[in-house]
Amino acid sequence: MNDLVKQSHIDYCNEHGLFLQNELQNFLYRNTIKKQVQYKRWDIAFTNWLRNAVKFKAEREARIQFLGVQNGSNKQNAAIERARYTYGNIKDSDF
């Protein structure tokens, strides 16, 4: 796991607006601390993680935009959606 982060990962994060440090922390937490998976090629697994992060980011932004258009309160819906993403499955009644 020594050479997990490659220059290509840095470039990919910069190109797609991801925060490398956050993605790396989440990746390592999910796969080492929780001991869910042990990869033979951690760098390839991290590349896949970053690709999924871009996909999930686009889906999240589309949901936020849809909710803002639908309800007319973009800031509030964006905050709720960010909280759901950050803290897990939160119900509207929690706000």
How would you concisely characterize the structure shown here?
By secondary structure, the chain is an all-alpha fold. 72% of the residues lie in helices and 0% in strands. The longest helix has 30 residues, at 42-71.
Strand content bin = under 5%
- Rg estimate, integer Å: 16 Å
* Straight-line N-to-C gap: 41 Å
The H-and-E topology, N to C, reads as HHHH
Give the % helix: over 70%
Largest beta sheet, briefly? none
Structural class: mainly alpha
Total strand segments: 0
- Overall mean confidence score, pLDDT: 78
Unreliable residue stretches: none
Assembly type? single chain
- Can you count the helices? 4
Q: What shape does the CA trace take?
A: globular
**What is the count of distinct domains?**
1
Provide structural commentary:
The protein is mostly helical and 95 residues long. It contains four helices and no strands. The chain has one domain (7-94).
List keywords for this structure.
mainly alpha
List the helices and strands and how they pair.
Elements: H1 7-16, H2 20-33, H3 42-71, H4 74-87
